[in-house]
Amino acid sequence: MTPVFSHGDLRLYILSLLAESPRHGYDLMQALTERTGGTYSPSAGTIYPRLAKLEEEGLVTKTVDGRKTVYEITDAGRAEVDAREGDLEGIQAGLADSVRLIADEVRGSVRDAMRSLRADLAAASRDEREQAKSTPQDDPRVRSREQLHRADAAITEFRGRTRSELRAYVARGGELAASGVDEIESALRQASEAVTRAMRA
Question: Which domain does 65 fall in, by range?
């Protein structure tokens, strides 16, 4: 996938986030994820070394607040952000372009996967028809395979459509909260239980 930040851009973008307000490391990681529409989720191994370097350069300071270390921009750091305002605008414009490209790549991948899936389902359907010709139609195994094929197609179509909608929503800048994912997991568990009940009916 296309990288979201070019070399050196992440450093300036972190400084710009700290210019907005003091933040701890995890807060910075969340802010970067949100600002990129979920297409870039930096690790602690990416953020903390850069914060240490910025502190070493005198551009940020850190204070310990309970169990959290809070980073705050210094006057020198703010001066760099102000001096590089044009660079920052370029980063933000490039970031928007990168997010759009990544979203396009995701949509392309989903389309390719769906085309492949449709081809697989068509092949499976042909195989089922061929096998059905040589098996008595009142055989319960034939009926079960036919219904299994229907169930597989329904589940696969649901999975592909839902993943595509979720990815597109995040790529457009939508916020996917943990509570929303909890609801999705709960709904999927209920659906799984319903499938189990249907098999026993």
Answer: 9-90
> CA 36, CA 43: separation in Å to the nearest integer?
14
Q: Which pair of structure tokens corresponds to residue 55?
A: 């502190």
Burial of 91 (0-12, 13-18, 19+ CB in 10 A): buried
β-partners of residue 70 are 24, 63
CB 99 within 8 A of CB 37: yes
- 8-state DSSP, 62: E
Q: How confident is the model at residue 137 (pLDDT cuts 50, 70, 90)?
A: low
Q: Are 76 and 58 in contact (CB under 8 A)?
A: yes
* Element (DSSP H or E) covering residue 115: helix 85-133
Among the three residues 90, 113, 135, which one is the final residue of a domain in this structure? 90
What is the arithmetic mean of pLDDT over 182-192? 79
pLDDT at 1: 41
Neighbours of 46 (CB within 10 A): 15
CB neighbour list of residue 95: distance below 8 Å, 6 or more residues apart: 4, 5, 13, 35, 36
- Contact call for residues 18 and 73 (beta carbons, < 8 A): yes
Are 58 and 111 contained in the same domain? no
Three-state SS at 20: helix
Question: How much is the mean pLDDT over the chain?
Answer: 80
Nearest of 168, 169, 157, 167 to residue 113 by alpha carbon:
157
Same domain, 108 and 188: yes
